[in-house]
Structures
1.
Amino acid sequence: MSRITSTGSGPLEGVARIPGDKSISHRAVIFGAIATGETQITNLLDGEDVLCTISCFREMGLEITGPDEGRLQICGVGLKGLTAPKRTLRTGNSGTTMRLLTGLLVGQQFGCTLAGDQSLQRRPMTRVIDPLVQMGAHVDGTEGRPPLTIQPVKALHTICYEMPVVSAQVKSAILLAGLYASGVTQVVESMPTRDHSERMLCAFAGKEWRPGGIIQVEGGACLRGQQVNVPGDISSAAFFLVGASICPGSDLLLTDVGVNPTRVAVLEILKMMGANIELSNSRVKSGEPVCDIRVRTASLRAIDVPIAYVASAIDEFPVLAIAAAAAQGTTRIRGAQELRIKESDRIRAVVTGLQALGVIAVEYPDGMDITGGPFQSGIVDSLGDHRIAMAFAIAGARAEGPVVIDDCDNIGTSFPGFLRLANTLGLSLSEHP
Ligand code: S3P
């Protein structure tokens, strides 16, 4: 298990292109596989999570070329063209792979098993099993957790599902299953979540996507292969947005970053804290809004994070906590209980990590209070969680001595090349076995 030592930083400077968006990359592979004809993807994230999705489809007979420098070519087999995998589908650390593929696979004429790594093994799957069972699917977990076993059923029914949890993964699983039910399947959200599946479904079905519409899918929809250019991942950009904000003298331009309205709460939260962030060159790529983001050092102040922003910034809280620890005053985060069931318990991991650096941080069932102050040198356990590891690598930039982060192997699930890029931009990170 590798560890990273983060030893201070000069200013963060330069122009950087952030790797492709993880959520959009997964979906481009999934829709490309079940469309007819060829799908060509560029700037695909070649992180381990997306590689798991690709290898699951290879197991189901797909001819896929790449990824090669972000290019992937998929010979789509249509809704009914997948073939029974000969072995268990391995979804690694990736909750998105497991949940979205479960939705897709309950509608197939074959059974299969999906299994993940130790972290994924602990994550709740009842949230996808329940609605899929309501649709007539036969899917079982082990006390609601992976591995999941799917048996084929004669037919799936449509549902109109009012989501009891706020989760784009659950929504997407239902929409994918809905492609195999006859009629229209609808999902009603209490709080909007990332809408990449809806946008991509429209693009592959040759329909115009309209914001604010009913979230629905028509069974048997005819999907055709597309060209998909994946925007940079705002969740990965967030590490450098915070890094540049808290390292004196920084001036950084991040190009081609996806700014889907369901993902930009991280920018709003940082701006509320006083961050100096400017968006330019706004455009739309493959149905997703994209722009360049310039960030310069600013003195940050504490805020009460509005609950309305929590769902859309859910992946960015580890690094937002580092921003809070560098801000003046006490930042309060509440309504974020979902953080406890991510790749690690991110509330516990962040609070314990900050305390190890001498920062005052208090844990609550659904959030945390963080009081800004100096960061001391210390050892932080990332608990094998990529976003915790990268967040504390950023914290090390501001610390009075080295910050050592344990168990960093999983950074490659979402941001291969993080270390190299971070060091190019001015951080000082070294890796040890
Ligand atoms: C994702 C949705 C979010 C997010 C995850 C990716 C997706 O999970 O945390 O990293 O691609 O749909 P939930 O939908 O469970 O909140």
2.
Amino acid sequence: MTAIRKIWIETYGCQMNVLDSELIAGRMKRDGYELTTDREAADVLLFNTCSVRKHAEERAISNAGTLKYLRRRRPDAIVGIVGCAAQNLKEEIFERLPHVQLVVGPRKVGAIPRLIEEIRATGQRRVALEDFDDEFIDGAETLARRESPFKAYIKAIEGCDLSCAFCIVPATRGRETSRPPDVIADEVRRAAAEGVVEVTLLGQTIDSYGKGLKPAIDLGGLLRRLHGVEGIRRIRFITSHPSFMREPIIDALRDLPKVCKYVHMPAQSGSDAVLRRMRRGYTADRYLRLVDRLRERVPGVEIASDFIVGFPGETVEDFERTLALAERVRFQNAYVFQYSPRPGTDAAAMADDVPAEEKGRRNQVLLDLQERVSGEKNSKRVGQRIEILVEGPSKTNPRRQAGRSDTNQIVHFEAACDVRGRFVTVDITSSTPLALYGTWVGS
Ligand code: SAM
Ligand code: F3S
């Protein structure tokens, strides 16, 4: 009997990377590999990397550097860098990390099992980078090995056709490609058959779904289609871009009870001058009008944003416009990033002229504003009865269970047993800016 081989994967960055790692693990399982959390026991070790900010990229590369000693002890182990940093740094990775044998870009992860076999057979390094000849791992062929038995990420779009001046993603993940609705629906049906009750559709600009597909379909149509899948009780989608949030999608959000009333739609800045230089394609006023329309048409909808502070040329006045936008919208949550120049992007040619200390200050001021807003919004939920999907024991207090509401709030409640994967109803009794606390009243 051949011994079961083991694969260890460390994932950095966004949900798309989490899903790619799950798909790699699923595909490798077909080839007889089991996932392990023990590096020492692994035959294949992969770092699924992120390049969005320099810091994220460097962290993955420096962690991969620590495997030098492991490979000296175990020359048969294969170490790979996959994902966005692989695509961005290409063969330079071999110079920086001589013990790495595999470099695979995000659109090529489907080739990993074949490349590993080739490395075993030849002892030679292998590289697979984006060349527009996809080796997508498609759900039709393989099943993700998911972290959660009841929640699933489903890829709806790979890549991005926009060219935000700060962003490296179009260079690492390539052109926007929508997966056909039949393939997505099949994958969702299979996930439901395995016990999944909540799916999250992923795409860099998920609301532009359908580009190039025949017959024509948009995200609204896809949501309507998936709404009919038995067993699925919640459907989420991330990330929305303000330019594509059109009426049929807003109608689907309003009309379909399974579609969660939560829209993650990054504003990035509240200053028109900065938005123009970022090439985001909208003004602050247009963003605000879209938020108003969403709230008018979809009662109870919650909106979240990303912001970049310290973009080239961002003045104190520009930043104050961002604060004003955040104050006016009152986001459910906001993810704030300090601008990090990325090679090859348009913004990298602009002077990175906001000093690090000032970036840090703006970051903190915006986070403080958001914390106050989240605190105020959460305190208004005290006294409400909310249905949540339980995710498992709370990280801070094992006597509590934690879950999420339709609008993505974290809710903690006391429970004597583990009820993960179940929908329960909770009466909210207290709140903090980060979470709601309540009493379990039924399921
Ligand atoms: N596709 C999404 C969108 O439309 O905004 C997000 C893509 S990116 C992976 C996630 C977030 O990282 C962005 O929304 C942005 O706020 C942040 N980000 C991207 N590039 C950055 C950079 N060079 N420096 C700092 N933050 C950055
Ligand atoms: Fe990046 Fe803008 Fe696309 S943030 S992923 S270029 S929408």
